[in-house]
Write a structure and sequence with these properties.
10 strands; alpha+beta; 227 residues; globular; outer membrane lipoprotein receptor (LolB), chain A
Length: 227
């Protein structure tokens, strides 16, 4: 009987810990912290209302704490908020506070929904909302509201690099009116302003990233980011 009570107490304690928003985010942060640098090939498919954007292949380089570079021969629309910027924001645990907003099913996964609020106004981020898989310490969805790009909804899909918190696929949903597009794309959008619009509200677009050929913690020189 004592053994049963002991096991029950451990289970209760673990369940309570899993519902602590700070512990949920900490577990995610510790997984992200395993990555000191990485490079990867990325295929980018952007679908923006009233604009034709060709699919493009690019290469992305990242190095802690905040160095990121994208190499591409075409126009690469690559939102940093869902890549290096989100990771950098979560790494500084003293810069934000967390609140649990219950649970939500994403497919067959019961996620914990956590709101992350910056503690100072000296940041581009206004609010981050995370849907975390507590069994794998992975972010399955995020919603990032920033001063520069409005609100981004991002869905994450994981494969071989899940142990590092690195997805093989990301789907961004953007508000085209607020998102900072490359100048050439923004010019095309400006030229199409006179075309009929189905609504005066937010115009959403999607950006799909397919990541492959990850090279993690193999050492990237600072010089890689100078050009």
């Amino acid at each position: 009987m004592k053994y049963i009570l002991f096991v029950f107490a451990l289970f209760s304690a673990a369940l309570s810990l899993a519902q602590d928003p700070n512990e949920l985010v900490k577990a995610v942060r510790l997984k992200i912290a395993k990555v000191k640098d990485y490079s990867a090939d990325v295929h980018i498919k952007a679908q923006v209302p009233m604009i034709k954007i060709d699919e493009v292949d690019a290469k992305v380089f990242y190095k802690v704490p905040d160095q990121m570079k994208v190499e591409s021969k075409g126009i690469a629309i690559l939102p940093k908020q869902g890549l290096g910027d989100l990771n950098n924001f979560l790494t500084n645990e003293k810069a934000y506070t967390c609140a649990l907003n219950g649970t939500k099913m994403l497919g067959e996964v019961k996620t914990a929904v956590v709101s992350v609020l910056p503690l100072t106004d000296n940041t581009d981020v206004i609010l981050v909302k995370l849907w975390i898989d507590p069994s794998r310490d992975l972010i399955l969805k995020s919603q990032i509201t920033s001063k520069s790009n409005g609100t981004l909804d991002i869905s994450y899909f994981y494969g071989a690099q899940a142990k590092y918190g690195l997805p093989y696929k990301m789907i961004f949903t953007i508000d085209v009116k607020k998102f900072k597009l490359p100048k050439s794309v923004a010019a095309d959008l400006h030229q199409n302003k006179k075309k009929p619009k189905p609504t005066d509200g937010p115009q959403n677009g999607t950006i799909i990233l397919q990541m492959s050929n990850y090279k993690i913690n193999q050492g990237i020189s600072d010089a890689q980011f100078n050009n």
